[in-house]
């Protein structure tokens, strides 16, 4: 039975309800990331923030964050994230008190996500930058990044060709998967060994696999 003080909500109210929920969670947790999600819901109702922050996305990013801390340390001057989408991973890294990060640049080829990423990460000020750019057109040497992250290697036609654009010796964190049935995945790998062979890193500090419901995600942390 419905409580007398409550009235049913139509599906058109979900943005308002989601905004109220996110604001309440931000107040409760003190999280800049959750506050950013509330701002995205309010300012960018067209953004698919629910998909960007679903449990599978979060699980994979937590795995990356914790493996990075354990295997490569906590201090970084500049991190570059490619295929950054709405900037969830940068927010998770910048918010984590275990890390000492001066700045993160999030690059994505889709111009529609830049403002959303800025809104999500607005609580981090000038420590975060969102840029619309093709990863093949970036001058990586000028960025002087001490870590380059690409968690969407399954979307890259030639992983080796892209990695050759990044200066030798640069530390990288890479993820791919074996989700071949997804049409946008043009370069999946069937195993961790295949991923390592395609990446051809000069040094590997971590190599692992995370089994999901429909696929396995693979991750490498090392240097080019």
Notes on the protein architecture:
The chain has 224 residues and is α/β, with parallel strands linked by helices. The chain has two domains: 12-49, no CATH class; 51-223, 3-Layer(aba) Sandwich (Rossmann fold), CATH 3.40.50. It has helices at 14-29, 32-43, 49-52, 55-72, 88-95, 114-120, 140-143, 159-163, 192-199, and strands at 75-82, 100-108, 128-132, 147-150, 171-177, 203-211, 216-223. Strands 3-2-1-4-5-7-6 form a seven-stranded mixed sheet, with helices on both faces. Helix 1 packs antiparallel against helix 2. Residues 1-7 have low confidence and may be disordered.
Rg, alpha carbons: 19 Å
DSSP strand tally: 7
State the name of the first-level CATH class of the largest domain. Alpha Beta
**Poorly predicted regions:** 1-7
The order of strands across the largest sheet is 3-2-1-4-5-7-6
Count of alpha/pi helices: 9
> What would you call the structural class?
alpha/beta
Following the backbone from N to C, one meets helices and strands in this order, namely HHHHEHEHEHEHEHEE
| Total discrete domains | 2
Using the coordinates shown, work out and report the CATH topology of the largest domain.
Answer: Rossmann fold
The H-level CATH homologous superfamily of the largest domain, spelled out, is Vaccinia Virus protein VP39
């Amino acid at each position: 039975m419905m409580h007398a003080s409550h009235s049913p909500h139509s599906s058109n109210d979900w943005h308002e309800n989601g905004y109220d929920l996110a604001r309440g969670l931000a107040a409760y947790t003190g999280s800049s990331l959750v506050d950013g999600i509330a701002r995205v819901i309010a300012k960018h109702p067209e953004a698919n923030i629910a998909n960007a922050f679903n449990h599978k996305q979060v699980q994979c990013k937590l795995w990356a964050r914790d493996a990075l801390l354990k295997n490569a340390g906590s201090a970084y001057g500049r991190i570059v994230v490619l295929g950054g989408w709405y900037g969830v991973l940068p927010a998770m890294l910048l918010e984590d008190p275990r890390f000492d990060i001066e700045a993160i640049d999030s690059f994505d080829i889709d111009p529609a996500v830049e403002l959303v990423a800025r809104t999500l990460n607005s609580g981090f000020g000038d420590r975060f930058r969102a840029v619309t750019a093709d990863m093949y057109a970036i001058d990586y040497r000028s960025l002087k990044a001490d870590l380059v992250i690409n968690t969407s290697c399954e979307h890259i036609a030639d992983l080796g060709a892209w990695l050759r654009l990044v200066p030798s010796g640069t530390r990288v964190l890479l993820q791919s998967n074996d989700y071949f049935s997804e049409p946008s995945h043009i370069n999946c790998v069937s195993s961790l060994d295949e991923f390592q062979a395609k990446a051809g890193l000069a040094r590997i500090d971590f190599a692992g696999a995370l089994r999901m419901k429909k696929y396995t995600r693979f991750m490498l942390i090392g240097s080019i």
